[in-house]
């Protein structure tokens, strides 16, 4: 019992000595609060939190998500082409692409794809 206690104490002392040595010889860095702050979506985290923000950024994100999900739907359609009747596959693919193009035209017509005014 005494041997285990002595062994644990020795290990703790070694750890404390190593930690003190690391603190003493480590390079002192200047703490820059600006570098430690997160950078999100172009916002300056040190400024006011109630600044107006353009809704256009969110519209572009939604458009990206919609087209991203549509690409995920198109890829399995290509893989299932050999297991289905080609006539039905062509009809479904054309309908899907037509809806996709109509959505793209709608977004283009309403100016959602323009980044600046």
UniProtKB/TrEMBL annotation:
The chain crosses the membrane at residues 6-25, 55-79, 85-105. InterPro entries: NADH_UbQ/plastoQ_OxRdtase_su3, NDAH_ubi_oxred_su3_sf. It is found in: Membrane; Mitochondrion membrane. It holds the Pfam family Oxidored_q4. The keyword Mitochondrion applies. It is an enzyme of class 7 (translocase). It is a multi-pass membrane protein. Its main location: membrane. One of its GO terms (cellular component) is NADH dehydrogenase complex. It comes from the Eukaryota. The keyword Membrane applies. Keywords: Electron transport, Membrane, Mitochondrion, NAD, Respiratory chain, Translocase, Transmembrane, Transmembrane helix, Transport, Ubiquinone. Signal peptide: none annotated. It catalyses: a ubiquinone + NADH + 5 H(+)(in) = a ubiquinol + NAD(+) + 4 H(+)(out). GO terms for molecular function: NADH dehydrogenase (ubiquinone) activity. Core subunit of the mitochondrial membrane respiratory chain NADH dehydrogenase (Complex I) which catalyzes electron transfer from NADH through the respiratory chain, using ubiquinone as an electron acceptor. Essential for the catalytic activity of complex I. Belongs to the complex I subunit 3 family. This is NADH-ubiquinone oxidoreductase chain 3. It comes from Idiocerini gen. 'Neoamritatus' sp. The gene is ND3.
